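Exam revision sheet. Question 4 asks you to relate a sequence to its structure. Input first:
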Amino acid sequence: MHELSFGSSTGKKATSDLIILDKAEMFWMKRSVPKQIPIYQVDAFADDAFRGNPAAVCILRDELKGETMQKIAAEMNLSETAFVKSLEEKPLQDARLFSLRWFTPKVEVSLCGHATLATAAVLFRETELDAREVQFRTRGGNLKARKDEQGICLNFPSDNPTSIEPPKPLLRAVGTQGVLDAQYAKKMKFLLIHLPSEKAVRDLSPDFGLMESAGAESGIEGVIVTTEGSPPYDFISRFFAPWVGIDEDPVTGAAHTVLGPYWSRRLDRRELKAYQASTRGGILSVKVKDDDTVDLIGNAVIILKGKLYLH
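Answer key, structure tokens:
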């Protein structure tokens, strides 16, 4: 037990000058008030809740160590957790320029489309931000997000793939048969595999453990499987990345910086409608531009918001 005495401001003895605290009460008095970070969960590239690709979004006022961000991402256990912070010395509602970082449960990544879309949705809808367009400084370059009549439009650098002889052990691990084409996107380190039919894409059941070991020394960080789609979609795809802790990503904006240029060449069209054929499914509009960028357009649904406590 501990005794705390309190005297009055006049120097006279207070009526009750002795408080008895046990160890439990002392413990709770010593605990500091935790830092609170606004956090949201958003289903990106979706028109309805529980579709598309979920991402967590943390709005930062102060800098956080990368190590702490990685721990938060592991705790959230979503394909990506985004951390956004204004880079301007002005109220949030007046900011236009932000830093943005993305973490899987295992690693930090250089580019993430769905978590960028989720971040823009939070800024546009959940803050008092008075802007139609914002810019993000990221490891993958400077990115833009703007309000669009179809939802939110992201402008990303494109990654035009080139032909490659794919590693046969990796193809066996993915389970592909009848490969029509294989290409490699150097910036994203993605292997693109063109299969003969929608059924071939949808029925794939990769051995992710075997994929991870088969591709470990190849430098490949993600595998896209794709084929021409049925109306209203120009192409469909799936995306696998066990090397960064994502066996199958529900909807992958970054993959469409590769898919856009690829299918634009094959179909001789600049504007394309895409469907990612994961269990959750996701819809994107892709516009391939002359300045080596692509516009990725989609919607997002905010399904949860709260506060993250850092003790």
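Marking note for examiners. The chain is about 20% helix and 40% strand.
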